[in-house]
Here is the input.
Amino acid sequence: MSTLLVAEDVAVFSSHLLVHPASLTLQAGRPFTILGETGSGKSLLAQAIMGTLPRGLRAEGRVTVGDQRLDLASGQGHRALWGRTLGVLPQEPWLALDPTMRARKQVEEGYRLVRGLPAVQSRIRASADLAALGLGNAGDKLPSELSGGMAQRVAFIAARAGGARIVIADEPTKGLDVFRRDEVIALLLKEIEDGGGLLTITHDLELARQMGGDIAVVLEGQIIEQGPAADVLGAPRHDYTKRLIAADPSAWPERNAAPKRSAGVKPVLTAAGLAKTRGGQLLFENRDLTVLPGEIVGITGPSGCGKSTFGDILLDLVTPDAGTVTRAEGVARVRFQKLYQDPPAAFPQKVPIRRALNDLVRLHGLDGSRIAPLLERLRLSPGLLDRLPTQVSGGELQRFALLRVLLLDPVFLFADEPTSRLDLITQQETVELLAEVARERNCAVLIVSHDAELIRKMSDRQIAFGSPPDAAALAA
Here is the structure.
């Protein structure tokens, strides 16, 4: 087994140490997974190795790729490796993809500009790659027309198109249903069958288990356990690793029954006979729903089956083809809120988080003193408020999105994959907070998740959406 990459004493700094010196070795044909919670520093470690740290951060240490040795403090030498030797699958596919370029063209570029293939052959290869991941009808779609799972798959295909022998995948299964997750895992593993290298950064415990190979567990910028995945996950030594495994939804205790409702309680929202077609395909029809104050309703189903569209119709963000939605009288529209699956798309990219929250407080006459206790409750450092949305992790930004929604004191909250970006421990804490909010404030919650076990453990009742006629052609 040959060595593809060696990282030695890699550290990351801003004004202080963010990632403590860490070393790892990537072998040909053997996956390596960096596992840790949101904000633990796992992505920064990978970005330092890749040479793609955000502005304002610097790295130290050494990385050897083949016969090329890179001094990370110099910041030189990486660019020639990008695409050809080192490929990256980014955490935020909607930000990584060109918003003005259709899916097939984004994949074609890798074949044409990096591999140097003729235009016709590049197009053929790109079309075949898209079809192989169930995206045969998505080639002419813009990123804004794709669901989160579809955008993730397009980004994955584009990352591989340049022929890089080493792929660094940052949260590659985030937001995917179980079937698509397992499909991407199979594709990632296929990358190493012929002696390629794969470094995966994730908070997904099941992904780490299925990948096998070697694993490093990261906490607060330090590797606390490292070794064969089967050993680390099968017999963890560190208390944090044990806690991480115990936070998997399958290990959650069964919830207490929903509190009994007194007769005559009026629903927060009622839908009758909803139907929606998109792209010439039927998403759903004859859908009814009544949601009471404080009730938690869960929705499961594969990518592209219309779960998000259904919730958007309830919020009057999308017009149904048939049916009606009736919301509680006398309640301001602003108290019917949504938690988006991809918070980067919901935050202004060039506005610090503190200003965005203060603007909301000022616009709606809210109580700004509630921000501090919510920060503590969501395990968010006050120092993050002065950063841009692009300067915090995906999980931290999702928790800021929840904080922003809670400031509005919602009576109905449509949570669209609200934990898809969160590690298991933070996911459990966030779900428990959602349940507390539902009970304490009598807020109805409609939550969508690909994780059927999470929905079962959290919800008072469940709704299952089935597979659409052509899931690859539809945005969820």
Remarks:
- The radius of gyration is 23 Å.
